[in-house]
Automatic annotation (TrEMBL):
CDD domains: MATE_NorM_like
Matches recorded under InterPro entries: MATE_fam (IPR002528), MATE_MdtK (IPR050222), MdtK-like (IPR048279)
Bilayer-crossing regions: 21-41, 53-77, 97-117, 137-155, 167-186, 192-214, 242-268, 274-296, 317-340, 360-381, 393-411, 417-440
KW Signal (keyword) present: no
PANTHER family linked: FMN_FAD EXPORTER YEEO-RELATED, MULTIDRUG RESISTANCE PROTEIN NORM-RELATED
Coiled coil: none
Keyword Aminoacyl-tRNA synthetase: no
Membrane topology: Multi-pass membrane protein
Protein name, UniProt field: Multidrug-efflux transporter
Length: 461
C-alpha cells in the first residue's frame, strides 16, 4: 500500500471534498426525485407503487445505459484540462452530442414499445398497466436526459461542479409539485396515478437540459466551447475514443443496474407487498449509494487531472485516499441504516405488511453498503486511469455469474426475498475484491511508465 503522508492526505481530502461536495448534492437531488416519485405514488395505492417499482427498475437500466455511454466525457475532459488543452475539452463535448442523440432516440423507441414486450413480465395486469404508462411518459424526456448527461459530464470534467449542483437542486424542487399534480390531478389535468410520475420526470429532464445548455453557452469558464443547436460534423477519431472509454463503463454500470432490476422482476411473482418492500429498501439504499457514487466521480475527475499533469505516483495516492474515505463513509451509513430503519421505512408507507419486510431488508442493505461503496470507489479510480474494459468484464462476472446465481438459489431454496438480498451482497463483494486488485495492478503499471525524476512525491501539492 502507498504510504499515507498526512499533509498529502489532507490536501487530497480537500480536493475530493471540493469536487465531491457539489456532486453529492447533485446526486442526492437526482435520487430525491425517485424518492419523491415513490412516496407520492405510494400515497395513491399499493398497485400504483408496485407499477412504479417495476417501471422505475426498467427506467434505471435505460438511464444508466445513457449515462454510461457518455461517462467518458467527464474523465477525458478532466485529463485534457489537466494538460491545459481547452480546445480538446470543447471538441469532446461537441462530439458527445452525437452519442447522446443516437442513444436517446434508441431508448425512447424502446420505451414507446413497452406494450409489446411488457407481456413477458409476470405480474398482475393493473400493475403492468401502470408500468407501461409510466415508461411511455418517460419516453418524452429521454432525448433531453441524454443531452443533459453529456453537458453535465463536460461541466464536471472542467471542475465546474457548483453550477451543476444548483441546476439539479432546482430540478428536485420542481419535481415535487409536478409529481403531486400529475399523480392526483388538478383542474383540467386528470389523476394519472403512478404513471403521472413519468410525465413529471420528463418535464424535469427538459428543464435540466435547457438550463445546462444555457449555462455552458454563457459561462466564461467554457470560453473554448462554441455550442450551437446544430451539432458539428462527426469527427470519427474523437467519437471512437469516447466510445472506447465510455461503452465499457456503460456496460459495467448497466450490468449492475440490470442485476438489481432483474431481481425486482424475479420478485414480481411474490406479489405487490414484497415488490413494494423491495423497492422501498432499494430506494433508501440508493440515497446513501448516490453519495458514494459522487465521491467516486470526484476520485475519477481528480485522478484524471493528476494523470494529465503526468504525476502517476500522485494519481495512485488519490486512488488510495478515495477508496479509504469511501470505506469510512460506508461504515457510517451502515450504522444509520441499522439504527434508523423504522423511521426510514415509515417515510414511505404505513402498510404494516410492507413495513415488516422492508425494515428487515435494511439490515441487509447495511451489509451490502460496505462492498457496494468499495467497488464503486475502485471503479471510479479506474475510470480516471481510463481503464474500463477489464473492469467491465469483472463487473459482468461478479453481478451476473456470481451475484444473480447465488441470489436466485438462496432466494428460491432458502430465504425468499431475504435470500435474494444475500445474493446481492455476494455479487457486490466479489466485484469489490476484483476491482481493488485491478486498481492495484493499473496503478503499478502506470508507475512503471513514469520518468525517474523524483518530482512526483505525494508530499508535494
Amino acid at each position: 500500500m502507498p504510504k499515507l503522508y498526512k499533509r498529502a492526505t489532507a490536501t487530497e481530502l480537500r480536493h475530493l471534498t471540493k469536487l465531491g461536495g457539489p456532486l453529492v448534492v447533485s446526486n442526492l437531488a437526482v435520487v430525491s426525485m425517485g424518492v419523491t416519485d415513490t412516496i407520492v405514488a405510494g400515497q395513491s395505492g399499493e398497485l400504483n407503487l408496485a407499477g412504479l417499482a417495476l417501471g422505475s427498475s426498467i427506467w434505471a437500466v435505460c438511464a444508466v445505459t445513457l449515462i454510461g455511454m457518455l461517462a467518458a466525457v467527464s474523465p477525458v475532459v478532466a485529463n485534457l484540462r489537466g494538460a491545459r488543452d481547452e480546445a480538446g475539452c470543447a471538441r469532446q463535448m461537441r462530439q458527445s452530442v452525437w452519442i447522446a442523440l443516437t442513444g436517446g432516440l434508441l431508448v425512447a423507441a424502446a420505451l414507446l414499445a413497452a406494450p409489446l414486450w411488457s407481456q413477458w413480465i409476470q405480474t398482475e395486469e393493473p400493475v403492468r398497466r401502470v408500468m407501461v404508462q409510466y415508461l411511455q411518459a418517460l419516453a418524452i424526456g429521454t432525448l433531453p436526459f441524454a443531452i443533459g448527461s453529456a453537458l453535465r459530464g463536460y461541466c464536471e470534467g472542467m471542475a465546474q461542479v457548483r453550477p451543476v449542483m444548483r441546476i439539479y437542486l432546482a430540478a428536485a424542487v420542481l419535481n415535487v409539485p409536478l409529481d403531486v399534480l400529475f399523480v392526483f390531478g388538478w383542474g383540467p389535468i386528470p389523476a394519472m396515478g403512478g404513471a403521472g410520475c413519468g410525465f413529471a420526470t420528463s418535464i424535469v429532464c427538459w428543464c435540466i437540459a435547457i438550463a445546462l445548455y444555457w449555462h455552458a453557452g454563457r459561462d466564461p469558464a467554457y470560453r473554448a466551447l462554441d455550442l450551437k443547436l446544430r451539432p458539428p460534423r462527426p469527427h470519427w477519431p474523437t467519437l471512437k475514443h469516447l466510445l472506447a472509454v465510455g461503452m465499457p463503463i456503460c456496460i459495467g454500470a448497466a450490468s449492475e443496474v440490470t442485476f438489481f432490476a432483474s431481481l425486482t422482476l424475479l420478485l414480481a411473482s411474490y406479489g405487490a407487498t414484497i415488490v413494494a418492500a423491495h423497492q422501498i429498501g432499494l430506494s433508501i439504499g440508493s440515497v446513501f449509494y448516490l453519495v458514494a457514487l459522487a465521491l467516486a466521480q470526484a476520485v475519477s475527475i481528480r485522478t484524471a487531472q493528476v494523470l494529465g499533469q503526468n504525476r502517476p505516483k500522485r494519481a495512485r495516492f488519490v486512488s488510495a485516499v478515495g477508496v479509504g474515505s469511501g470505506f469510512a463513509y460506508a461504515l457510517l451509513t451502515g450504522a444509520i441504516l441499522i439504527g434508523f430503519r423504522d423511521l426510514l421505512v415509515l417515510a414511505y408507507t404505513s402498510n404494516p405488511d410492507i413495513i415488516a419486510v422492508a425494515r428487515n431488508l435494511l439490515l441487509l442493505a447495511a451489509a451490502f453498503q460496505l462492498v457496494d461503496v468499495t467497488q464503486a470507489m475502485a471503479a471510479g479510480a479506474l475510470r480516471g486511469y481510463r481503464d474500463t474494459r477489464v473492469p467491465m468484464y469483472l463487473q459482468l462476472f461478479s453481478y451476473w455469474v456470481v451475484g444473480l446465481a447465488s441470489a436466485w438459489w438462496i432466494g428460491e431454496h432458502l430465504w425468499g426475498v431475504y435470500g435474494y438480498w444475500v445474493g446481492i451482497c455476494i455479487g457486490l463483494g466479489t466485484a469489490a475484491v476484483l476491482l481493488l486488485l485491478r486498481l492495484w495492478r493499473t496503478c503499478g503499471r502506470q508507475l512503471d511508465k513514469r520518468p525517474a525524476t523524483g518530482e512526483d512525491e505525494p508530499r508535494l501539492n
